[in-house]
Amino acid sequence: MLKVLIFFARFFIFWLLFFLLDRFIFVCIFLKNIPNASFTEIVAVFYHGTRLDLAAAAYMIAVPLLYFVIRFLLTQRKIEMHWLKMLNKVYIILFSLIAVVNFNIYREWGSKVNAKAIGFAFSAPNEALASSASSPIIFNLAVLAVLIASGLTLNKLILQRELQPQRTPVWAKALFSILLTGLTFLMIRGGFGVSPNNQSMAYYSDKQLLNHAAVNTEWNLIADVLKSRHSNHNPYLYYPDQVAEQQVKDLYGIKKDTTTHILKTSRPNIVVVIMESFTADLTQTLGNEIGITPKFDSLIHHGLFFSRIYSTGNRTDKGIIGTLAGYPSLAAQSIVKFPEKMERISALSGELLNNGYHTSFFYGGQSEFDNYKAFILSHGYDLLIDKAKFDAKDMNSKWGAYDGVVFNKQLQYLNTAKQPFFSTQMTLTNHEPFEVPGTYKFGNTDNIHKFKSTAFYTDSCLNDFLSRAKKQPWYKNTLFVFVADHGHILPKERQEVYIPQRYHIPLLFFGDVIKEEYRGKTMDQVGSQIDIPATLLHQLDLSAAPFVWSKNLLNPETKNFAYFSWDNGMGFIDNKQCVTFDNVGKMVLYNDRPQDAGNTTILLKNAKSYMQSAYKHFLSL
């Protein structure tokens, strides 16, 4: 019996050492992002990660254990387990690959590799490769080599090839097998407690990165994949539904509609440009960055600018739905992955089509990516132009056509389009791997400089588009709406996914169709990109009733707030404070006014109620 225990103990020791190495590399890579952490606090990550490490190892030993128990009960002979070493080699290579992917996912998303990332890789492999092109290839290969070499060496030194149990009565074998199986199950479950293992078991710090480091990467991935299969359960239940719904209802309640009408006509042409990763940090107006977006900054002085707007999520799939459908992000979930639900929500394009508008959508990439095409074609767009409609000579970037090419295509179409029209473009050049045609304005020595260069390129394309559009007769009756799909970690290297600055984006209404008294004016109330549909529809004197999550930014009676979410949590911001909350660790991650306990409590209740109600609405579709 002792030999059997030693055999399986060696298996667990091997994987604890491998996971320790994985975690050590993770901490080393991101150590610069936690400058205020003490040495003791950093070292504690290895202790707090042990529980989920054991659970992950227990999952992997389940099949070998079942094989052993059957052989153990049926024979007194030596039990060959050499195949376990081969299985372990497969695990080592697979988990090493997952670890390297995780390092890069975390650098970009601020969350560990999950079901969404895996789905992204399988549903859009070309785009996934393009996104990873900005990752340090040599470093990644070196880390991969270290993990695999270390794993294979430890595998050879620690694991045994065979078991020779002592002759034992059958009843003793049965009892021992039950105990060994039960112990393994307990490690999978996490003990006898009421709550089984979950990510929060590894949480111990007020520094989110250390908590993420403590969570076993492979266990987290398996748990997230399994959880994503059960989409009919609301994981964000904080209050009785009626309490949460009333809280949200109060947020949207207005005494009367006193909309400020800023347009010269109620039927303008509308051009919406959703700009890839065009974070507020890029601009001089909001980010104090000089020379990156000079043309956009100059446009601000001639349009109506909303200075305190926040994206609803941190990915394009959230941004496009937020901007065009006024629908909030759902943390790790995305409504675009559920076409039958997505088709049941309204979008600006559909509403305007029903009111006599001619609609079009321009995108230089593959519209099937992240189910964009399903959304576009099911929500009232007459025309879709994507990479399939461009000449092969124009497919010069890893994502498709550069922004300048797409702006040219859109302008050619608008010059002959029937009016009034509603035309949307989603840019893509300002995305990893940050490539531009021609010269990099800020150089390309690292991702920060490349990111600035691609943003400068998009800015120049935008200016060229408007300069040529001004010469067209339709220009004077056209409202241009410029907004980012989401914020970005660059150029200021804002590593924490939970801080509001990661979601701060510019929103600009521009064009001769705006009344002169509103040009050059800045609105400093807090709002969200999901407020665009209701705001525009009220300007057109059309009903915004289908857009229950969107509010009118140009009604002085509207309450000023924005909600945003990421994979593990949500944030809520009003005119004086922002609070973000981690749903796994059940703790506040960010609070810029901790001394205001009363408003902090209110914002937390708003955030939780909003998340709960939004997810309930999603499930009901």
TrEMBL record:
Subcellular localization(s) per the UniProt record: Cell membrane
> What residues does the Sulfatase N-terminal domain cover?
268-541
Q: Keyword check for GTP-binding, yes or no.
A: no
What CDD domains would the database entry show?
A: LTA_synthase (cd16015)
Annotated positions binding Mn(2+): 276, 316, 485-486
Q: What keywords tag this UniProt record?
A: Cell membrane, Manganese, Membrane, Metal-binding, Transferase, Transmembrane, Transmembrane helix
For molecular function, the Gene Ontology terms on record are: metal ion binding; transferase activity
Residue positions annotated to bind substrate are 431
| Membrane topology category | Multi-pass membrane protein
Keyword presence, RNA-binding: no
GO CC terms in record: plasma membrane
Q: Which residues form the active site?
A: 316
Q: Which domain of life is it from?
A: Bacteria
Which segments cross the bilayer? 12-34, 54-74, 86-106, 137-158, 170-192
Enumerate the SUPFAM superfamilies for this protein.
Alkaline phosphatase-like
Q: What is this protein called?
A: Phosphoglycerol transferase MdoB
